[in-house]
Amino acid sequence: MKQYETVIGLEVHVELATKTKIFCGCSTEFGGAPNTHTCPVCTGMPGSLPVLNKKVVEFALKAGLAANCQIHQYCKFDRKNYFYPDNPQNYQISQLYLPICHDGWVEIETSAGKKKIRIHEMHMEEDAGKLIHDEWEDCSLVDYNRSGVPLIEIVSEPDMRSSEEVIAYLEKLRCMMQYLGVSDCKLQEGSMRADVNLSVREVGAEEFGTRTEMKNLNSFKAIARAIEGERERQIELIKEGKAVTQETRRWDDNKEYSYAMRSKEDAKDYRYFPDPDLPPIHISDAWIEEIKAEQPELREVKQARYQEEYGLPAYDAGILTESRHLAVLFEETAAIYGNAKKTANWFMGEVLRLTKDKAMDPEQVSFSPKHLADLLVMVEKSEVSPQNAKKVFEKVFAEDIDPVAYIEEHGLKIVEDTGLLEETINRILDANPGPLSELLGGKDKVMGFFVGQIMKEMKGKANPASARETLMKEVEKRK
Amino acid sequence: MAKIIDDETMENVCILAKLSLSEEEKEKAKAQMQKMLDYVEKLDELDTSEVEPMSHIFQDENVFREDVVTNGDNKEAMLANAPKAKEGQYQVPKTIG
Amino acid sequence: MELEKLTALQLGEKIKQRQVSVLDGVKTVFEQIEKQDSEVHAYLDTYREEAYKRAEEVQKGIEDGTYTSLLAGVPIAIKDNICINGKKTTCASKILENFMPQYNAEVIDRLEKAGLVIIGKTNMDEFAMGSTTETSAYGITRNPWNLEHVPGGSSGGSCAAVAAGETYLALGSDTGGSIRQPSSYCGVTGIKPTYGTVSRYGLVAYASSLDQIGPVGKDVADCAALLEIIAGHDEKDSTSMKREDLQCSKELTGDIKGMKFGVPEEYLAEGLDPEVKASFMGVLDTLKELGAEVEFFSIKTMEYMIPAYYIIASAEASSNLERFDGVKYGFRATEYEGLHDMYKKTRTAGFGEEVKRRIMLGSFVLSSGYYDAYYLKALRTKALIKKEFDQAFGKYDVLLAPASPFTAPKIGESLKDPLAMYLGDIYTVAVNLCGLPGITVPCGKDSKGLPIGIQMIGDCFMEKKILRAAHAYETSRGSFAVPGEGGTR
User: Fold this and answer.
1) Nearest Cα to Cα of residue C62 among C31, C25, C104, C105
2) What is the pLDDT of residues A319-335, one digit of tens each?
């Protein structure tokens, strides 16, 4: 039996989180009625001209530097010419000859250990519009709201060998982009998309096999399935003695099969040439230094710091830094509260549980760190029971309520009302003569039963320690 | 020797340029392009091995805009010239079959 | 008073003095249009009603001090590749037969701010591709000096309109000589400014690295005044330059003593019409008489200019014209099967022959396998040409060249042999390749009575020098007859 190896390279498109499009002052906001975020530039009107958004260059530099890339300090935009209605000029402004970033790498970690994935280049380009297929009239409709939204395309070397590595690589990129604040990388909104270049070869072979490119992959699961499907298809062909054709294929995730996107009109000759409308970009050493100085702490560094500074286990530090957004919430809460370890426990428990239960993206979590810190302080001072604190936190998590006021209003605060406590205890003792006689007889194990009853009656407003203390006193009186 | 423009090249050029020519037009276009290419072949006399291609005349300064939204909803104006539109979108023949 | 014989500045001055109303000037122009344009066909569209209304507004604006420009109230015609909000902008192409931009070109905003009155859109070669205005999809324009001849191109409508007195001023665009050559054929003055001087925003692109909008007028002073209005930095055009050195009127002193003129000797070799040459040599004498130094020198890249130009211009055009596809605006074929057939039928029916020729050539030179051999080679050649001009401007203030090897050809003669027509651009294309400013001034007539123009070329940003030189020559030359009358201006 021959063994085959899969060789995978990725082209990942990441939409940059700028306020405006790459070449015009239209909003990049997601959603919005069709064509409401358009202007002559991003609809390709005659006579319109592009002007580059500086933020796009900054974001591309941030991403490139984080991925250990070299920078082309003199770089240009090129036109990629092809006719398609989502591309209003029928050329896409992109970079071929001098991409802004090149020759970098990122490190991924899989069950097999750590591995470097080399990055061939990162370039800036504009996104296309959206096509909707109108089955009713058998036509397509074009919305240019996304046309001109800035992208960086990250092209890897063919360094990946499995879908596990591919997913790890994508998660790495996503995490990095989110940490840098250059993209939210939401696959479902298309702000992160991957094209998979895949070939197979016999294990030990020197040469790469013929590769295919798969498009239309919009979730990690779809990517994993597409890789498995395409690998099988290619191996099947090779086994049958047939050749793999170099082509672009479209993955249909429902049918779990890819289809060749073949057309006589698809000349695949993009006639790239430098865009005469956009002067070259000069990136000075000073600019690069400035960007470097502004780079946020990336995940690996943060993870190490949490272990060192907060004394968190590696596992916890890993979980807490998965999303930069959550990590920032964590750090801010810990800073206000003053106890990182306890804050971490709360995050590892409650925050992650609720995020998961509500099927939320970590980026969507939004509550004031102050509110959680206040709540934690109350727990520490035994002003609220841990059970009630968890319930209150659900409110903080969902509506960002002020926990101090809420606990007050809903009478959840533990009150040192000894009269009420004594009265409650005596009522319970009277109602349970059996267990009481056991207790009087010196059987301490019924203590737990009584404390539980008391707490229940007090609806959590009593402090278990003082409940126990008062109970002892009252029992003593009855001896 | 300049490139010889054959039928296949013409065919390819028409696909790239999205033009369809009649046989007669194709022959004429072929001959004219051939003549033009034979003429521009003159450039081969020049030794340009040490010369950088000059894509832009002036290229000293960076030209950027700030990331500030300046455009509002221009939908009506943008669609005003559309040969076919439907529900605020440009209507085109079906793009996937 | 024969208002049609005034220059734009003279009209502007009389308006300012309240000797003439803005409306008088506008009416004069429309009278001339009425009288002549059925024959000349300089215009594709005119806005009589609106121009009359605008004239009243501008009149008030001049009176209350809103408009202070020297050209406030002066009528102007616009080449039809420059967008005006709500006005048909066709580029003389069927593919844009019904296109109405919803935005103004930057130059239009500037003209309006200065209080000029736009009277209509002028004819041109389709998408500015051509040297005769015969490739227009909406009929040819005739040369007002002799209706059997072409006005030149591609800004043939603008130049013919000025020559015929159908406007005082016009805007043209110049990619390879499209202002300077028709100005020469029509006996008017036209400037191609330094690349980046006038915003290209709203100019429908032919070849983006070469295109510039420029003024066409009756004399140097008119063109200089108009240039001051339209020039300036525009944030919407990334190739637009910040220039604060275009207050040119004070350059027009007539004094060119000690100025150094260079004449490329290759420009006077074979192919130059003897009558054009004689007229050109006459200019050299005049300049010497004015105290200038005139010297011959050699430009070795001359024979490579046209090849480099046509490769670069066609390549850019093939890309710039991709957006005309029947999806967003303009013409769409009525019957088609599927998307790509719609593209092909639309573009095949929408573009004329010359445009298709250049799109095909451009697509070819950029295509895989030929990019290096043709397109990059042309860009390298451009660098060599630029270097040679840089060296020349190390020695000379202004270079002199004919505007065209011949005077206006007869209608119907040029398009038979496209390559021969391209060769006619020999004296103009280098200016665009190198981003230089150039001006054409009438310098004589041939035996058929057709005007001859001389071209003065400056180094980048040296508009002042060519304006000074052109004005001094013009002053010394004296008045230049108006077509059909033999009278003087």
Assistant:
1) C25
2) 999 888 899 999 999 99
Per-chain mean pLDDT for chain A: 91
Report the neighbours of A using a cutoff of 3 or more CB pairs below 8 angstroms. Answer: B, C
The alpha carbon of residue B30 is apart from the nearest alpha carbon of chain A, in Å, by 19
pLDDT digits (tens, 9 = 90+) for C142-170: 999 999 999 999 999 999 999 999 999 99
**Predicted TM-score of the model (pTM):** 0.91
The total number of structural domains in chain B stands at 1
Structure-token pair, residue A42: 């991003």
H-type helices in C368-415, by residue range? 377-395
* CB-CB under 8 Å, C322 with A90: yes
Class (C level, CATH) for C3-256+437-477: alpha beta
Q: Which CATH number fits domain A418-478: 1.10.3720.10, 1.10.10.410, 3.20.20.370, 3.40.50.620?
A: 1.10.10.410
Question: What six digits make up the tokens of C437?
Answer: 């400013």
User: Which residue, C64, C111, C60, is CA-closest to C84?
Assistant: C111
Q: In terms of pLDDT, which residue wins out, C456 or A261?
A: C456
CA distance B93 to C325: 12
Catalytic residue chosen out of the listed positions C178, C183, C184, C314: C178
Mean pLDDT of C445-452: 96
The domain segmentation of chain C, as residue ranges, is: 3-256+437-477
Per the annotation, the verdict on C298 as an active-site residue is: no
pLDDT band at A451 (very low <50, low <70, confident <90, very high): confident
Averaged pLDDT, C447-452:
96
Active site residue C178: yes
Q: What is the pLDDT of residues C188-222, one digit of tens each?
A: 999 999 999 999 999 999 999 999 999 999 999 99
ipTM of this complex > 0.95?
Answer: yes
Nearest residue of C to residue A265, measured between CA atoms? C340
Q: Quote the CA–CA distance of A349 and A397 in Å, as a whole number.
A: 13
Residue A6 CA: distances (Å) to CA of A108, A196, A229, C299: 17, 12, 12, 60
The rounded distance, in Å, linking the Cα atoms of B23 and C362 is 21
- Cα separation of A70 and A61, whole Å? 10
H or E stretch covering C24: helix C22-40
Cα-to-chain-centroid distance, residue A58: 21
Confidence grade of residue A264 (pLDDT, cut at 50, 70, 90): low
Q: Above 80 in pLDDT, residue B97?
A: no
Give C37's Cβ-side CA count (13 Å radius).
Answer: 24
pLDDT of residue C445: 96
In angstroms, the Cα distances linking A447 to A213, A429, A470 are 70, 11, 12
Residues A72, A281 contacting (CB under 8 angstroms): no
pLDDT score, position C484: 62
Please tell me which residue of chain B has the smallest CA distance to A77. Answer: B55
d(CA C32, CA C13): 21
Is residue C154 part of the annotated active site? The answer reads: yes
Chain B neighbors of A139, CB-CB under 8 A: 86, 91-94
d(CA A386, CA B3): 83
- Is the pLDDT score of C419 beyond 60? yes
* Cα distances (angstroms) measured from residue C275 to each of A85, C266, C443, C452: 53, 17, 11, 9
In the predicted structure, residue C118 carries a pLDDT above the cut 90: yes
- What residue type is assigned to position A54 of the chain? K
Q: Please name every residue paired with C121 in a beta bridge, in sequence order, or none if there are none.
A: C45, C78
Of B60, B62, B92, Cβ closest to residue A142:
B92
B45/chain C closest Cα distance in angstroms: 9
C164 C-beta neighbours (distance < 10 Å), count: 28
Could you list the residue range(s) of the whole structural domain that residue B12 is in? 7-42
Segments making up each domain of chain A, as ranges: 4-287, 297-409, 418-478
In a domain, B90, yes or no: no
